[in-house]
Amino acid sequence: MNKEGDLPVAYIKWYDFTKWLLERVENFPKSQRFVLGARVSDSALEILELLGQAAYARKGRILELLETAILRINGLRWLLRMCRDQNLFSNRQFGHASMQMEECGRMVGGWKKQ
């Protein structure tokens, strides 16, 4: 798996979502950028790392990595909900993020079942 085309679609989708999310976090007010924004950024990047590790892991380790990624995705859902409740995301941005996370979550779940 050397080329991007060889990577699982779930990884590519999460990469794109993380890029979008980090751009939004940059616009958080300073008071929240280093509190809630840092948690959101760290969570999204941790999930990206887990999916990247799963893409290159041995068969026995893939399941563990994907289960951890699914748990982290569920935790990030709540962080994004907190962002919306704190008016750090517009309803439109939250809707987009929710749809992207739902799609990626389903893809990771499908990857896990393979």
Number of helices: 5
pLDDT below 50 for ≥5 consecutive residues: which ranges? none
Total E-strand runs? 0
Judging from the principal axes of the Cα atoms, what is the shape? Answer: elongated
Which sequence of SSEs, written as H and E, runs from N to C? HHHHH
Average of pLDDT: 94
Distance between the termini: 17 Å
Explained architecture:
It contains 5 helices and no strands. The protein has helices at residues 9-25, 30-33, 36-56, 59-85, 91-113. It is elongated. The two termini are 17 Å apart. The longest helix has 27 residues, at 59-85. It has 114 residues and is mostly helical.
How do the helices and strands line up, and which of them pair or pack?
Layout (H helix, E strand, L loop, with lengths): L8 H17 L4 H4 L2 H21 L2 H27 L5 H23 L1
Helix pairs in contact: 1-3, 1-5, 3-4, 4-5
Using brief descriptors, characterize the structure shown:
mainly alpha; 5 helices; 81% helix
In short:
81% of the residues lie in helices and 0% in strands. The chain has helices at residues 9-25, 30-33, 36-56, 59-85, 91-113. Helix 1 (9-25) packs antiparallel against helix 3 (36-56), helix 1 (9-25) runs antiparallel to helix 5 (91-113) and helix 4 packs antiparallel against helix 5.
